[in-house]
Design goal:
disordered N terminus; 2 strands; 359 residues; single chain; mainly alpha
Length: 359
């Protein structure tokens, strides 16, 4: 390997403009070079003075058989920065990551068992007030008294029979009202003729108090179970119809134009556009209908009934058993909470494609 060294004396821009003589020229070798290269770069007769103000640019070229070379620059040569540094910034201090100024306006993650927090707090306050003697036991018994009464009624066999009877009435009425509400809403929401014939009648029925129809339905259907189921169906179908009809009317007309351009049939249009667009409103009406079935059942079971939770509460009223009345009310409340939670769970599964504040 042949090593060729060229020593050039230059003038730094920071030194005075006084010319340097040949005798004052000196050669310096970078600390990274080997002793062999240091001996090769020193010229004969050249002196190295410590006070000499010179800068030496040493260029070492190595020629090999392949024709490649390496160059070593002295430490005093300017080195380009590895990364661009902003003006006025301290390059030795690491940059801190910028905090995002974007605030989240969403409610946040859903709390576990969030629907049970409110009822649990209510029962805790009830128990504390009863233990502190702030509530009259004759008017509002303590929670443990109500639980004890529930155990006695369940052991006697009275409570299971009444619960099953109430569930049967509510189930029949809810199924009938759900079917009527969906059919009428589809007929009214998808056809102008159906809207003219159905919507006005439903609005008129909604304005009439449903419980005010009980005497008329007793004359028409008798005092048995039929009129009770009919009243429950009316209470259920009205909110289902209103919310589903509103959802159908609120579908964007651009989707209808898109379906016409794609050449969709009527059945496919209903299945792929109408039903997905109307499902949110349908589930709102379904939740209201489920709650309405339990509310109407409380009143209907106190009219010429021989079984059911309402009948049990009516009998307890005659004997002044406040604890038994509270047992019936608590069971109604549990049924309402469980049924509403079931509808919400189904809604979350069916409408999982939506991104809303609730999910």
């Amino acid at each position: 390997m042949t090593t060729r060294t060229t020593t050039t004396t230059t003038r730094s821009s920071s030194t005075p403009s006084t010319a340097l003589t040949d005798d004052d020229a000196s050669a310096s070798v970078s600390g990274s070079t080997s002793p062999t290269e240091t001996d090769a770069t020193t010229e004969t007769g050249a002196t190295t003075e410590p006070d000499a103000v010179t800068e030496t640019d040493t260029e070492t070229k190595s020629e090999t058989g392949t024709g490649t070379g390496t160059g070593t620059e002295p430490a005093s040569a300017p080195v380009a920065p590895a990364a661009p540094v902003e003006a006025g910034a301290d390059s030795h201090r690491p940059r801190r990551p910028r905090r995002s100024r974007r605030r989240s306006l969403a409610p946040g993650k859903r709390l576990p068992a969030s629907r049970l927090i409110g009822p649990a707090l209510f029962f805790a306050l009830w128990a504390l007030a009863s233990a502190a003697g702030q509530l009259d036991p004759g008017a509002i018994p303590a929670p443990w008294t109500v639980l004890k009464t529930t155990g006695h009624l369940w052991t006697d066999g009275t409570l299971p029979t009444d619960v099953l009877t109430s569930l049967e009435r509510a189930g029949y009425g809810f199924a009938l009202g759900l079917s009527a509400g969906v059919v009428l809403a589809l007929a009214s929401g998808l056809s102008r003729v159906g809207e003219a014939l159905i919507d006005g009648t439903v609005q008129l029925n909604r304005a009439i108090p449903t419980l005010g129809l009980i005497p008329l339905f007793i004359l028409w259907l008798g005092i048995g179970e039929t009129f009770k189921i009919a009243i429950i169906a009316i209470v259920v179908y009205i909110p289902i119809y209103l919310n589903l009809h509103s959802a159908l009317s609120g579908i964007d007309h651009r989707y209808v134009e898109l379906a016409e351009v794609q050449g969709l049939s009527r059945l496919r249009f209903v299945r792929e556009i109408v039903i997905p667009g109307a499902l949110p409103g349908f589930f709102v009406g379904l939740r209201l209908g489920v709650t309405g079935s339990w509310l109407s059942l409380v009143v209907l079971e106190q009219i010429n009934a021989t079984s059911g939770l309402g009948y049990m509460m009516f009998q307890a009223q005659n004997y002044g058993r406040t604890d038994t009345i509270l047992v019936g009310l608590l069971i109604y409340g549990i049924f309402g909470l469980v049924s509403d939670s079931a509808v919400r769970l189904i809604e979350r599964k069916v409408l999982s494609w939506r991104r809303t504040l609730s999910n």
